[in-house]
Amino acid sequence: MTSDSRLSWRDVRDRIHEHILTGRYGPGDRLPRDADIAEELGCARSTVQRAMQDLSDSGLVERRRKGGTRVRAEPVTRATLDIPITRREVEQSGARYGYQLIRRRMAPAPRGVVAAFGLGASRPMLRVEALHLSDGRPYIFEDRWICPETSPEVNDLDFTEESANEWLVLNKPYTRLDLRFYAVSANPRLSDLLETEPGAALLVIERTTWVDDAPITTVKAITTPGYQLLTGS
Amino acid sequence: MTSDSRLSWRDVRDRIHEHILTGRYGPGDRLPRDADIAEELGCARSTVQRAMQDLSDSGLVERRRKGGTRVRAEPVTRATLDIPITRREVEQSGARYGYQLIRRRMAPAPRGVVAAFGLGASRPMLRVEALHLSDGRPYIFEDRWICPETSPEVNDLDFTEESANEWLVLNKPYTRLDLRFYAVSANPRLSDLLETEPGAALLVIERTTWVDDAPITTVKAITTPGYQLLTGS
DNA sequence: TAGTGGTCTAGACCACCGG
DNA sequence: CGGTGGTCTAGACCACTAT
């Protein structure tokens, strides 16, 4: 009478989402048990479970054993961000990619790097500074520190042709990642490297990665004016 | 002999992840069929499926019907971002939250707003400018446009006590979201409002939301110097 | 068209945690 | 302790797409 085909977990998800949009379930309200929803809709409990997992992933509801499922009282704006390899990013914009190593040398990790990794004390690390170019013009300046204990291979790499960005992403999978975004004013050196006016506002993307608590690398990707980071949604 | 308890999908995920880390499966390589992995590990295929779903969500592998599962050739750095309501953000930092409406009026949507929504032509919208304070000092300046057709309730709200940020997040769930981040230099008005030096570099978080292609709101959250956006990971 | 992942089901047991 | 979500299984069928 009503529907001929089975309910998919997306259907179930959308129905519940609809109820939340409509206000049938408001912030903080408790939803029926999965089993009850399943019975009401005429599907298996695991289908409801799959739908709820999705709603939970998107931050719309919170689930607890015994506590049940509740609409999140303090909603958050949740989004997924994809940061591609810089070379790919440039090429996909239709421009010609270029790369230029600025400096490569061992040095004791400064305080900021020690803090980013959560280490107790400083230690010697490999610092690699490089410039990514788009159609020959500066695109991103990369100031990177690599932990040689975790990646001994870097001692044999000079990073004159291939960027550390690319080598690490391809060869050093991580198990933990910290990302942060902020803005800085171009100091004289940066405005020189990036060919911008002194004091220009630059978006900085800072990434730190670990393998099982062993620090791999931390990098500040300092972008050129006008650069925008978008969600993939 | 080997193991007494069942494999969980996390175990399966970690094993495969390990194989990718080790290089047993390199970028672009094809992994065995789910069914074969299940048999090899002695678990149900759906357990492998659950593990693979997770690896796929984190951008480590790509799955296609008939094409099988492959290690992503061009890896991306993928992260999930949670942006809380500004009031909560301030309060959780231990500071006292304050709010101040700067201006509220109807106006024709400028080109940038029309473009953000993907509309064909301009139309009158409600513009709300407001300041969020942390311990009495400027924290974030919010420049927002609201589409009154989608949210007619805003005609009866003056936003002098409650911020549009909070009202919208609590009362206007969205089905689509666009996020972008970039840096701007403080112009005279911004440096005045935010009590910063003229030309200071500021991180801007731009959010646009829709319900089923109907535009709800677009907002530029212009932060104060030093503000950092972090991943929840 | 055939191979592979995607989903649904029904049932069972487990893990967590609120009352 | 008991209620609820989390997971695993075995099997079936479907949907997509590479070959």
Automatic annotation (TrEMBL), chains A, B:
Kindly indicate whether the keyword Kinase belongs to this entry.
Answer: no
The coiled-coil segments of this chain are none
Is the keyword Transcription in the record? Answer: yes
Instruction: Indicate what this protein is called per its UniProt record.
Output: GntR family transcriptional regulator
Domain HTH gntR-type residues, every copy? 6-74
- SUPFAM superfamilies (UniProt xref): Chorismate lyase-like, Winged helix' DNA-binding domain
Which controlled-vocabulary keywords does the entry list?
A: DNA-binding, Transcription, Transcription regulation
Gene3D superfamilies found in the cross-reference section: Chorismate lyase-like (3.40.1410.10), Winged helix-like DNA-binding domain superfamily/Winged helix DNA-binding domain (1.10.10.10)
Question: Cross-referenced InterPro entries, in alphabetical order?
Answer: Bact_HTH_transcr_reg, Chorismate_lyase_/UTRA_dom_sf, Tscrpt_reg_HTH_GntR, UTRA, WH-like_DNA-bd_sf, WH_DNA-bd_sf
- Give one GO molecular function term: DNA binding
Q: Which organism is it from?
A: Roseovarius atlanticus
